[in-house]
Amino acid sequence: MSPNVSQNGSKKSLETSGSIFEIEDFDVLRSLERPRPVSVERVRSFDERSFSELSSTLSPRGFGRNSDTSAHIIDHLEYASSPSRRSGLNTPRSNCHFESHPLVADAWEALRRSLVYFRGQPVGTIAAVDHSVEDLNYDQVFVRDFVPSALAFLMNGEDEIVRNFLLKTLRLQSWEKRIDQFKLGEGVMPASFKVLHDPKRNNDTLIADFGESAIGRVAPVDSGFWWIILLRAYTKHTGDSSLAELPECQNGMRLILSLCLSEGFDTFPTLLCADGCSMIDRRMGVYGYPIEIQALFFMALRCARLLLKQDGEGKEFVDLIGNRLHALSFHMRSYFWLDLKQLNDIYRYKTEEYSHTALNKFNVMPDSLPDWVFDFMPSRGGYFIGNVSPARMDFRWFCLGNCVAILSSLATPEQSAAIMDLIEARWEELVGEMPLKICYPAIEGHQWRIITGCDPKNTRWSYHNGGSWPVLLWLLTAACIKTGRPQIARRAIELAESRLSKDHWPEYYDGKLGRYVGKQARKFQTWSIAGYLAAKMMLDDPSHLGMITLEEDKQMKPPIKRSASWTI
Fold it and tell me: What is the pTM of this model?
């Protein structure tokens, strides 16, 4: 690689030569029909539209795949002589239709500054545009970080960047992935990618990270799930199923599902994960079966079932998905759910039970119940706890997992209402002065030293350890609208509006109430900006919710009471 390489921060002209895939990639994009977005009546229930309603007839050209290289440095593309380039502030669209608050215009301007271009096409947004500190990996496009940006662009009628992103990350999935001498599964999606521009050779280079550069060298389990969820959001919102029906997209989904649905030694339908494999990407004691991954897994399965073609291979996966969803919904609703009654039952558990009729199926010791949970649990309300595995229950509240559980209908309507009751009853603890706590409570003292390994970034009430993350606004807002409580979202957004712009859009806030800008928080964090915009736009037009929510599956087996589960 040429030493004179700089980040691609502005739009580039189309090159004259490149790999077969890259040339055909954007030819296919241009050939895709772009029907008008499907309008959704506000009074209409957000049920799943039949895919027969979506306009979709396309015979895409084949994509060339280069399987001979194992490198993550791909697509050296030569450019033609440089024509005039458009500013990122003017592309793909600069006039936002929704500007009910002065902060909205500032947010859109900041979001557009984060756009990344490859071959003259917008392909994502970098994690942060903070020039006051070293970039580290904040100058990369993260799959999970881009989701709120993608939703904001879709709501604003700008679907091109989302389509480009989906195809670009799909392309990266096809390359061989190795960490040291170990080859990762074929379906693993990248955690992030970066576009580099060499001004001397006038070409672009795309570099992907599948975990080999991440903290702890952990592959991202959530990236593939977010990719499927975003593909469904694009399809639902635009009414264009031709992208999802591409053979490459169908194969990409099957590869992701193959990693998750393969048979093994598991006795639970949940996914076993390492610490650091999702938004909480550092050691925080979430190894095992974290709620965030299980909720995303459930939602991705439901989205994939809608998107997969009912052909030979597709039909086989659809059947596998159906069986897994039934088992997963029962397991999560039965064993991860905690309310006052269930807390009291656990408090009275007997141990060392050995039979199919055991109530304490995981042999959890009642003495391991933390003192704080008794005061935290309101008389009305409940939530999905952080983790359940043999002899271990993590009773911490995790925002993302509980919100996704509501959006995906992993939570029953009664459980969804109870989660919202909990948020209202424990507003000071979970929202405070800046929404929204990523988890509650913080771990400290000896427990912090053991669980985090004395991580200086995850000290109490900071970062992943009880920090407040503005990006979670969009998830809270979507959950509030779905459960019929938009006033909760409105209150949280008003809190955020009082600080975000003045504080230069921080990544996170510190303190028990979220009062202080995080000690290592980046400014102009893209998903803080995009999360706010997505929340505002959903609140203004609730019909947008349809692309990111799933109604309860009427065919799903009803939850079975724990005491009766032995008869099944």
Answer: 0.83
